[in-house]
């Protein structure tokens, strides 16, 4: 995994073609043909908008672009994990191979590799697991083994675990793996061996649980936050979260990956959909 925490996006958005859409339970993996795009750092995101049908209807305003973590880059394609949680993501889920999509990215700051002697624990929940897939790819390619802990609400979401390899699972409804929260799996791992660097992305409540666990254990953590964005590059200040000690961080520019010790807490709006 490379040392830089940011890869600069090409200037302006690019009109690309959808290569295909794969199903993982209720999730969709949107595959976009991007053979000339830069290789992102794990944790970076892109702003996506369908080229057609992107709005409420004739005479109504178009939707804002949707900020989505880059889940994987493979064979000239960029992959994005989607869940239908509103009109924008619903339209993206409707796209089919051959249709066009506007992409602006990669944007933001990504994850950084663990220091020698620290094992990498990847902890994710729901659709928020997306950036952990490319992180696993990049860490293992650089010789860093990974332990993957994933949590899902119910059986309809469990197929999302197929995005990563060799994951240990937790489910709220007990349909697979540990009956309970993924943070319970993480707590047991940190008690067994605290020499870790925790990478996490998921719902805000899960991220706050990870932050508290790691703070108590003295374990560093990198949290990939999510927030509603209008621009994706720091101009609108619509995605700010409070910084520990005062001031604010822009999720799009100062993040989305932020060291847990920079936060007093994870804001309720700064996580993936539950």
Please write out the topology.
Layout (H helix, E strand, L loop, with lengths): L13 E11 L2 E7 L11 E6 L15 E4 L2 E3 L2 E6 L4 H8 L5 E8 L11 E7 L4 H12 L4 E7 L14 E5 L6 E2 L2 H11 L3 E6 L2 H14 L3 E4 L15 E3 L5 E3 L6 E3 L15
Parallel strand pairs: 8-9, 8-12, 9-10, 10-11, 12-13
Antiparallel strand pairs: 1-2, 1-7, 2-6, 3-4, 3-7, 5-6, 13-16, 14-15
Helix pairs in contact: 3-4
Helical stretch tally: 4
Whole-number total of structural domains? 2
Q: Strand-residue fraction? A: 25-35%
| Relative helix content | 10-25%
Give the second-level CATH assignment, the architecture of the largest domain. 3-Layer(aba) Sandwich
User: Mean pLDDT, rounded to whole units?
Assistant: 92
Radius of gyration: 18 Å
CATH topology name of the largest domain, in short, is Rossmann fold
Uncertain segments are none
Largest sheet: 7 strands, antiparallel
Please give a structural write-up.
The chain has helices at 87-94, 130-141, 182-192, 204-217; strands at residues 14-24, 27-33, 45-50, 66-69, 72-74, 77-82, 100-107, 119-125, 146-152, 167-171, 178-179, 196-201, 221-224, 240-242, 248-250, 257-259. Strand 1 and strand 2 (27-33) form a beta hairpin. The chain has two domains: 14-107, Elongation Factor Tu (Ef-tu), domain 3; 119-262, Nucleotide-binding domain of ferredoxin-NADP reductase (FNR) module (Rossmann fold), CATH 3.40.50. It has a seven-stranded antiparallel β-sheet with strand order 4-3-7-1-2-6-5. Helix 3 (182-192) runs parallel beside helix 4 (204-217). Helix content is 16%, strand content 31%. The longest helix has 14 residues, at 204-217. The protein is globular and about 55 Å long. It is built from four helices and 16 strands. The protein is an alpha/beta fold and 274 residues long. The model has no long low-confidence stretch (mean pLDDT 92).
């Amino acid at each position: 995994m490379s040392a830089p925490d940011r890869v600069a996006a090409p200037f302006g958005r690019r009109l690309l073609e959808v290569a295909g859409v794969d199903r993982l339970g209720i999730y969709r993996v949107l595959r976009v043909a991007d053979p000339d795009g830069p290789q992102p750092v794990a944790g970076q995101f892109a702003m996506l908008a369908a080229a057609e049908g992107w709005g409420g209807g004739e005479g109504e305003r178009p939707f804002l672009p949707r900020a989505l973590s880059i889940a994987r880059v493979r064979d000239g394609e960029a992959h994005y994990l989607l869940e239908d949680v509103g009109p924008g993501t619903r339209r993206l889920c409707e796209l089919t191979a051959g249709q066009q999509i506007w992409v602006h990215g990669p944007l933001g700051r990504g994850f950084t590799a663990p220091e020698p002697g620290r094992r990498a624990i990847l902890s994710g929940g729901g659709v928020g697991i997306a950036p952990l897939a490319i992180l696993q790819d990049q860490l293992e390619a650089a010789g860093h083994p990974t332990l993957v802990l994933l949590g899902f609400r119910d059986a309809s979401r469990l197929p999302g675990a197929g995005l990563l390899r060799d994951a240990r699972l937790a489910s709220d409804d007990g349909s697979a793996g540990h009956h309970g929260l993924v943070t319970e799996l993480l707590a047991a791992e940190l008690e067994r061996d605290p020499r870790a660097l925790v990478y996490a992305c998921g719902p805000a409540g899960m991220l706050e649980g990870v932050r508290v666990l790691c703070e108590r254990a003295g374990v560093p953590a990198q949290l990939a936050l999510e927030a509603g964005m209008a621009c994706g590059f720091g101009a609108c200040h619509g995605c700010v979260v409070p910084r520990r000690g005062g001031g604010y961080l822009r999720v799009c520019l100062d993040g989305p990956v932020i060291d847990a010790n920079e936060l007093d807490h994870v804001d309720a709006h700064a996580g993936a959909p539950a």
